[in-house]
C-alpha cells in the first residue's frame, strides 16, 4: 500500500505538466486565407455521433495549425469558423485507431452566416504518425471469414506469426497462451490493452492470461506492430480494444454462426496415410453466438452497451485415438482404438458491459466490466500424446473491471486517468472422461506416465500425465497523463504501471514416478516430489515524456521512458509428498529484482510533397522484455528444493516396477545413481549475480529500427514499403558451477565424442556425415548437485539475435464496399551464442532451477551455435466486394505461409556413440541412448501452406433492421498442408498435424 500511495502522489505532481493524448485518433491541419497566409485563432470543431459530448473544439495557433486529439473511431465533420470569414465545413472524415487525419482549410472573406460544406475524400495516408498499425473495425470483423478474435484477425497482417497454431474458421478457438509476433519479436512482447491500459496477467512474461473481449462489444481492434507508442514498455504486437459506448439511439447487433461434421470435406489423403499420419483434422462442431445491445440512459449524458458471447471449437485431434488400455495399471502399451478418434472440446463464455457518463461538460467517466470463463476439456492431446496423458485446462475465473476519467480542462489541456483490476484462476487437471462410449470417467491414480522414445509412435506419452497444475493471479494496472496541445506542438508526460501477485501456483502428481521406454523396454525413470506452490509479487511503475513538433513538412516524435521493475517472494511452505511423507519446509519472504531502465522512442515523418499523399517515416525505439520471466522466477527460494531427478533403470525381471530403494541416491538394485544426489533436499538452487538483479540497464531489451515510404496512388488507394530490423541485448545465462568450476577449462569435467548420422536420403547429402562437438559428463562428476550461477551473457562472451526484413503492403477502400488489404513480408533471423556455449553450455535461466541436474544444455558444445535461417516469406490478402443492386457481398482472405521447421532427434545407441566416447554415458547402462539433432535447427522446412477462406452473404432489411445471411467456406481449396512433424528421427517426416479440411459455416448478422 505504501508503494501505491507513492505512485498516486507522484501522479498528482505530474498533473502540473502538459501532455498529449495519443492513444486514439486525432485530426490536424493548417488553416489559411485566400492569399495563402496562415490564420491564427480559427475555431475548429470536430463533431460526431460517437462522441457523447457531441463535439470537441480547439483554436489554431500562431502558425495556423490545429490539433484535436483523443477522438474515438467513427465518421466526423470538421467546422472552421472565424469572424469576418465564411464558415467551412468538411464532412466524411473517417477516423480509426491512432490515425492522424490531416484536414486543411481555406477561409474566404465573408460572414459567419455563410457556410460552405465540403465533402472530400477522407485522408488515407498518415503524414505525421509513425506507428505501423492495422485497424479492424466492426465492418471488417463481421465481414471477413474468420473466427472473430484478435489472433485470427491479427494473423492476416503480413509478417505476423501466430503462437499456438494455424486457425481455420475459428477451429483453433481462443487460448490465453496464444500470441502474435512480428519482425523477430517474441511473444512476451505482445500486449492486450483496452483503451490503452494493459489487460495482461503477470504470467508467461505478461503476455498470457489476457481475456478475449466480445467482438459485438468492441468498436474496433487496433493492432500496432512497429513504432509503438510510448505508453507501454514492451515491444512487439500491441492489440488495443476500443469498447462500444452506446449512443443516443437504442441499437443492437447479433452475430451467430454454426458448422459441424456434416458440412465438411475430407483432406486426409493417401499420401498422408502413407507418410504415417493415422487420422486427419476434421471439426466436430463449431459455433459462435454473440449479441450486443446499447443506448442512452440519459440522452447526451449517460450511455450503456452490453454484450454476451458463447463460442465453441470442437475438433478431432489428428493422428490420435483413444487407448484401449486406458486406466489399466497392468497394461504398459498403447493400443489405439480406431473406432474412437479423440475430440478436443473448447468452449468459451463472455459477458461484458460498459457505462459512459458525461458528468459535466469537462468531465467524462466510463466503467467497463468483463467476465469470461473457458474450458479446453481435451488439452495437450496430440499425435504424440494419448488422451489419458492430456489435461483438462480450465480458466473458470477471468474477471476484469476498468475505470476511466478524462477531462479537457481547456481547449489545449487534457487530463486522463485509467485503472484496471483483474482476477484470474486456472487449472490443468486430469482429464475427466476417457472413451465415453465405454463409460470410462476420471483417471486411475495408480497409472504411471510413460514416454516411449521408440516403438510405433516415437516420443509417445501415454497412461497419465507426469504432473498437473493450478494457479491464479490478481493485478492492478494503471495509467495517467496530462496533455498540452497547440497546433504545431504537442507535449505529453504520463505514468503507467502495474502491481500484482502471481500465484499461488501449484504443482501436484498422482504418482511420484514417470518412466521412459525404448520400444516398450524400460530405459530410465524420473522421481518427483512435486506437491508444492509458488508465489511472487511484482511492481512495475513507469513514467514517460513525449514531445511532438510539426515544422513545415516534418513531424518529429521524441520520447523517453523510465521503467522500474521490482519483484519479491512472500513466505512459502511445502508439505509432504509420496516419497517424502514427512516433508514440512517453510521459506521466508525475500526480495529479488531491482531494475531501472531508460528507453528512448524516436520517430520522424516527412510529408514529401506537402500534399498529404506521400510520407516517409523513420523509427528507432528501445523496448523491454516482458516479465516475470527468467531470473524473475528462477531464484524463487522454493526452487532450492530439489524436486525431481532422473536415473537409469534396468528392469531385469520385466515387472515394470523399479526394484530398488528410490530414496537412496547411489546406484542400487535395478536403478542407477541419481542424476542429482540432493533429490528431496534443499540444495544451493540458483544464485544470481548481484550485477544481474540490481541496477541500471540489466533487464533484457530489444531495439527496433524501421523506415518506410507510404504513397497514395489514387483516392482511397495507397501502398507502403518498409524495412525493419530488430536486435536483442542483456541475455541471461546460467552457469552450472558444479561442472564448470571457476578457473577450470570449460571441458574439464566432460569427454568429447562424435557420432555418425545414419545413411538416409532424407538427410542432407544422404546422411552418413560425422556430427562432432558432442560432450558427455565424466562419470566422476555425475550426480553432483547442480549449482547454477545466473549472469549476463556479456560476462562470458558475445551473444546476438537479430531479424532483418522487408514488408510491402497495399490498402484499397472504394465505393460499393470494395476493400483490399494485404501484401508480403520476408525476413531472416540470425542467432549466435558460440562464445557463450563453448564456455558454459546453453542452459536457459528459466530452466536453471534447483530441481534440475546437469544435462546436455550444460555441456560446452558449440554444435548449431550459429544459425542463419533462410528468408521466410509470407503473402497475405483480404478483401470484400458488395455486388450492386442485389446487395450480395463476397469476402475472402488468403494466406501463403512457410512450412513448419523440421527436426530429427536421433536416439543414438551405444553401438553408435560408444566407439568415439569409449564408454557408456555417465549414469547410464548398456541400453542408454543419447539424443542428437541431425539437422541444424530452423534451416529445413516443410511445404508451404496456402489457405483460402471465402464468405458469400446476402443483405436485406426489414424496416430499420438490417440482416446479412451467408455461408463461409474455409480452406476452400481443401489443401492438406502439414502443420507439424514428429521431431524424432525414427519418425522423420511423419506428420503429426495437418490443416483443417474444407468446411462450410452458416452465419447470420442482425443490426437493429
Describe this structure in words.
- With 1008 residues, the chain is mostly beta strands.
- It has a domain at 2-123: Sandwich (Immunoglobulin-like).
- The chain is 5% helix and 51% strand.
- The protein is built from eight helices and 59 strands.
- It has a 25-stranded mixed sheet that branches.
- Strand 22 and strand 23 (413-430) form a beta hairpin.
- It is globular, with a radius of gyration of 30 Å.
Unreliable residue stretches: 1-22
User: What count of helical segments does DSSP give?
Assistant: 8
CATH class identity of the domain at 2-123 = Mainly Beta
Largest sheet: 25 strands, mixed
Report the β-strand fraction as a percent range. Answer: over 45%
CATH homologous superfamily of the domain at 2-123, by name? Immunoglobulins
CATH hierarchy: architecture of the domain at 2-123 = Sandwich
Shape: globular
Percent helix among the residues?
under 10%
The CATH topology of the domain at 2-123 is Immunoglobulin-like
Provide the residue-averaged pLDDT: 91
Q: How many E strands?
A: 59
Based on secondary structure, the structural category is mainly beta
Radius of gyration: 30 Å
Intertermini distance: 47 Å
Task: Please sum up the structure shown.
The protein is mainly β and 1008 residues long.
Characteristic terms for this protein:
5% helix; 1008 residues; 51% strand; 25-stranded mixed beta sheet; globular; Immunoglobulin-like; mainly beta
Outline the secondary-structure elements.
Elements: H1 2-14, E1 25-33, E2 43-47, E3 55-59, E4 65-71, E5 74-81, E6 87-95, E7 100-102, E8 105-107, E9 115-119, E10 132-137, H2 138-143, H3 150-154, E11 160-163, E12 179-182, E13 191-194, E14 197-198, E15 218-226, E16 238-243, E17 251-260, H4 270-275, E18 283-298, E19 302-323, E20 336-360, E21 363-379, E22 391-408, E23 413-430, E24 433-434, E25 440-441, E26 449-452, E27 460-462, E28 468-485, E29 489-508, E30 513-518, E31 521-528, E32 532-539, E33 542-551, E34 554-569, E35 572-574, E36 585-587, E37 590-607, E38 614-624, H5 631-634, E39 644-648, E40 686-688, H6 690-693, E41 694-696, E42 701-714, E43 717-729, E44 732-736, E45 750-756, E46 770-777, E47 788-792, E48 800-814, E49 818-832, H7 834-840, E50 866-868, E51 872-883, E52 888-897, E53 905-908, H8 910-917, E54 930-933, E55 945-958, E56 961-970, E57 978-981, E58 991-994, E59 999-1007
Parallel strand pairs: 1-7, 1-8, 6-9, 13-16, 26-30, 37-41, 40-47
Antiparallel strand pairs: 1-4, 2-3, 2-5, 5-6, 10-15, 11-12, 13-14, 15-16, 17-18, 17-59, 18-19, 19-20, 20-21, 21-22, 22-23, 23-28, 24-25, 26-27, 28-29, 29-32, 29-33, 30-31, 31-39, 32-34, 33-34, 34-37, 35-36, 37-38, 38-42, 42-43, 43-48, 44-47, 45-46, 48-49, 49-50, 49-51, 51-52, 52-55, 53-54, 55-56, ...
